[in-house]
């Protein structure tokens, strides 16, 4: 098999022969632009990140990496910070219970990444903090952020910390933020006043989060340019009636009208 193809795109799951898949991946390291796998618990991360001598493999053209359900237990990654495995990465999708010892996987694509889709857990957040991954100003080109909460392996983040980590992924270029898991309003309200770069968000989807209309209006004070919004509304009928019957201050009714007039898409 010395004449292995040098692929530009390769996607596989644990049903595929993992050793063969890793061999193909390594042989195509210089040409791959898209790589995706659904590990289903397989320990495949180290296998395609390292060669037989334990050196990090660089994928210079890789633009799209999708890694789901791999479960390496604290893989021994490199401490040589000059090595960047994915220098051209533009899209990262990662949903894994893996706990890393360092930031090798996340290193070096801060200036190229435009789309991030990730399930956050304690292991990821601890690495992000320690190595300032996705810290302010280091991921300035991320336009689309999609965040979920990983509940597995006892690594679930408390609601307040999840809110802080999720909104903390927003960059100066971010136009779309989707949070797929429930965050109580008090934690959103506690976090967003301290988050920079929210002013450019145009699409805000708070899936599985219940909010009242007045809570939404309060959030929009800090995220003023949203035109596409979604959440699960609570008590909307009584609030609308209160606005119509002038049982709440009139300026809130005015704000509500402004909200309706500026939104292009409303996911209720």
What layout of secondary structure does this protein have?
Layout lengths: L8 E5 L4 H10 L6 E5 L6 H5 L14 E5 L22 E5 L19 E6 L1 H10 L12 E6 L9 H10 L7 E4 L5 H7 L11 E9 L1 H8 L7 E6 L2 H9 L5 H13 L2 E3 L1
Parallel strand pairs: 1-2, 2-3, 3-4, 4-5, 5-6, 6-7, 7-8, 8-9, 9-10
Helix pairs in contact: 4-5
Our estimate of the beta-strand percent is 15-25%
- Poorly predicted parts: none
Helix content: 25-40%
Major sheet, described briefly? Answer: 10 strands, parallel
Question: What is the approximate shape?
Answer: elongated
Distance between the amino and carboxyl termini: 55 Å
Number of strands: 10
**Residue-averaged pLDDT:** 81
Oligomer: single chain
Total helical elements: 8
Q: What is the string of helix and strand elements? A: EHEHEEEHEHEHEHEHHE
Structural class: alpha/beta
Q: Which sequence of strands runs across the widest sheet?
A: 1-2-3-4-5-6-7-8-9-10
Rg, rounded, reads: 21 Å
Describe the structure.
This protein is α/β, with parallel strands linked by helices and 268 residues long. It has helices at 18-27, 45-49, 122-131, 159-168, 185-191, 213-220, 236-244, 250-262, and strands at 9-13, 34-38, 64-68, 91-95, 115-120, 144-149, 176-179, 203-211, 228-233, 265-267. A ten-stranded parallel beta sheet has the order 1-2-3-4-5-6-7-8-9-10. The model has no long low-confidence stretch (mean pLDDT 81).
């Amino acid at each position: 098999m010395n004449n292995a193809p040098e692929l530009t795109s390769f996607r596989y799951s644990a049903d595929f022969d993992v050793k063969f898949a890793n061999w193909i991946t390594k042989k195509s390291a210089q040409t791959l632009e898209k790589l995706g796998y659904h590990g289903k618990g397989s320990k495949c991360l180290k296998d395609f990140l390292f060669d037989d001598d334990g050196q990090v493999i660089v994928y210079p053209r890789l633009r799209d990496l999708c890694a789901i359900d791999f479960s390496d237990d604290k893989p021994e990654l490199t401490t040589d910070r000059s090595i960047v495995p994915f220098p051209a990465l533009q899209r990262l999708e990662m949903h894994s219970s893996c706990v890393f010892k360092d930031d090798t996987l996340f290193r070096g694509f801060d200036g190229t990444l435009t789309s991030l889709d990730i399930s956050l857990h304690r292991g990821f957040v601890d690495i992000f903090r320690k190595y300032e991954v996705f810290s302010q100003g280091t991921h300035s080109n991320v336009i689309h952020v999609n965040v979920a909460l990983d509940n597995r392996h006892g690594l679930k983040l408390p609601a307040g910390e999840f809110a802080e980590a999720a909104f903390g992924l927003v960059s100066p270029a971010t136009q779309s933020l989707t949070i797929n898991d429930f965050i109580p309003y008090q934690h959103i309200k506690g976090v967003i006043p301290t988050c920079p770069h929210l002013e450019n968000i145009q699409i805000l989807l708070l899936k599985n989060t219940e909010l009242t209309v007045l809570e939404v209006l309060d959030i929009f004070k800090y995220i003023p340019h949203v035109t596409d919004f979604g959440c699960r509304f609570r008590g909307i009928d009584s609030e609308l009636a209160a606005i119509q019957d002038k049982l709440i201050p009139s300026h809130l009714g005015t704000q509500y009208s402004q909200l309706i007039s500026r939104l292009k898409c409303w996911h209720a």
